[in-house]
TrEMBL record:
It comes from the Bacteria. One of its GO terms (molecular function) is oxidoreductase activity, acting on NAD(P)H, oxygen as acceptor. This is 2,3-dihydroxy-2,3-dihydrophenylpropionate. Transmembrane segments: none annotated. It comes from Rhodococcus rhodnii LMG 5362. Keywords: Oxidoreductase.
Length: 280
């Protein structure tokens, strides 16, 4: 934004080792922030090599209270304050429909998905809450297209991301006027997401074949496309009037038409049809 829009704010960010989280960490540092970068993967440690003392990596399971306490303590012990908590860690159910899940696996899969996608941001906010109130800081949670629409994942993932939207609104209410709470709802991002181990899933690409053609904007935005939205919501200067808001960045998925993705996109089967030039 301006190179200093975060003004030495201290930010705790989960899911920081790769994808959107790693890109946002880079953007936060560029805007003047100091970041406690948290992830269950040891890949997060390399952020300290890249950014020196601007980043403190913490390897922790954020679905457990102890992991969130460790992250908050790292910020307080190093810099004495917390200005922003970003709950970005998430796993996917690989778009698995309910009827495809064996009944004896459903309970375990539910607890695994909701543990990371819903419980973890609650634990993170709670662990950082006293410091956030003291700094009159803010919370940013990563939602999804699936926070407001069906078909953005399977039954477990979609339900969990709808729950994140509910957390944004309820916590914004509960914590006002001391702490602002907002969220970002990405649509399609070129990342690799950890699957649900209770369903036998591993890490997989989040972008499926054919996705680009289904998007109104007709291209897969890079993970860095979301940096500015997270920076906006973390900034005291630029989002002072925002709380309870879920900012959608879905490449136009929510306005996709029935017959074709966008008004000037050729219909399927007519990809080579010339699009009329705009009139003066």
């Amino acid at each position: 934004m301006g190179g200093d829009s975060l003004d030495d704010q201290v930010i705790v960010l989960t899911g920081a080792a790769a994808g959107i989280g790693r890109s946002v960490t880079r953007a936060f540092v560029a805007e003047g922030a100091r970041v406690v970068a948290v992830d269950v993967s040891t890949d997060v440690d390399s952020l300290a090599t890249e950014y020196g003392d601007r980043v403190v990596p913490v390897v922790a399971d954020v679905s457990r209270w102890e992991g969130n306490i460790a992250a908050a303590a790292a910020a307080l012990d190093t810099w004495g304050r917390i200005d922003v908590f970003v709950g970005n860690a998430a796993i996917t159910d690989s778009a698995t429909a309910l009827e495809e899940i064996d009944g004896d696996r459903l309970t375990g899969a539910f607890h695994e998905v909701f543990g990371v996608n819903v419980l973890a941001p609650l634990l993170g906010v709670r662990a950082c809450l006293d410091a956030l109130v003291a700094s009159r800081g803010s919370v940013v949670l990563t939602g999804s297209f699936a926070s407001t629409h069906a078909g953005g994942g399977g039954s477990l993932y979609t339900a969990s991301k709808h729950a994140v939207h509910g957390l944004i609104r309820q916590l914004a209410y509960e914590l006002a006027p001391d702490v602002r709470v907002n969220g970002v709802a990405p649509g399609v991002a070129p990342t690799r997401l950890k699957g649900t181990s209770a369903l036998g899933q591993t890490t997989a690409d989040s972008v499926l074949d054919g996705t680009q053609r289904a998007l109104p904007l007709q291209e897969i935005a890079p993970v860095s496309a979301y940096d500015g939205i997270f920076t906006l919501l973390a900034s005291r200067r630029y989002s002072a009037a925002m709380t309870g808001t879920l900012v959608t960045a879905d490449s136009g998925l929510s306005v996709r038409g029935i017959a074709k993705p966008g008004g000037r996109v050729p219909a399927i089967g007519h990809e080579h049809t010339e699009v009329p030039a705009p009139r003066a």
